[in-house]
Design goal:
This protein is mainly alpha-helical. The chain contains six helices and no strands. Helix 1 crosses helix 2.
Length: about 190
């Protein structure tokens, strides 16, 4: 049997929306509506109100769980972002630490070179001190030798001076003096 009716535009729109929401055809929706009208659910099963209440409660809990899930996802994303930031900071610190280690090694190498140079300079200084002690001893010897030579020179000068004082009387007279005094013959004969 077929039954026909002419609903208004608003009712047709409501039927279309309800059918879409329930994912059924318009004919099935109208059949269910007639069935429910003829056999109301409240009279048929008294536990349906309790099921509806439980369904509503479960829907609220589901919404709450979804909200918590979204919040946890947001917190997880924030935690990942913080972890990535810390990871980047840690890598930057490791890189800086490695750079500092390289600089410290370079400074240690320079320090070792400076210590080696310092030891070489100390050795040269000690050698120079030893050489200076030897040079001072040599200088003292040379000064003593010069003093002795000076004394010897003074002695020789005194001896030469004494000899020169005595010598003019022993030297032959000059040629003019010999001619004037007629000594030239004496000196010629060698005698």
């Amino acid at each position: 049997m077929r039954v026909y009716c002419e609903p208004d535009a608003q009712t047709i729109d409501e039927i279309n929306e309800a059918a879409k929401a329930m994912h059924i055809s318009k004919a099935d929706l109208i059949l269910k509506a007639v069935d429910q009208f003829l056999h109301p659910i409240d009279q048929a099963d008294p536990g349906i109100d309790q099921l509806r209440s439980e369904l509503d409660q479960t829907s609220l809990e589901l919404d709450q769980v979804r909200s918590e899930n979204d919040q946890m996802k947001s917190e997880l994303d924030q935690a990942r972002s913080d972890a990535n930031k810390r990871w980047s900071e840690l890598n930057a610190m490791k890189s800086e630490n490695n750079q500092m280690k390289k600089e410290i090694e370079g400074l240690r190498s320079k320090n070792d070179q400076i210590l080696i140079t310092n030891d070489q300079l100390r050795a040269e200084r000690d050698q120079a001190k030893n050489d200076m002690v030897g040079v001072k001893k040599d200088l003292e010897k040379y000064q003593e030798a010069l003093k002795l030579k000076d004394e010897h020179i003074h002695f020789l000068e005194a001896t030469v001076h004494q000899a020169l004082e005595k010598l003019p009387h022993a030297l032959p007279p000059s040629q003019e003096e010999a001619k004037a005094k007629h000594w030239w013959q004496f000196w010629k004969s060698g005698g």
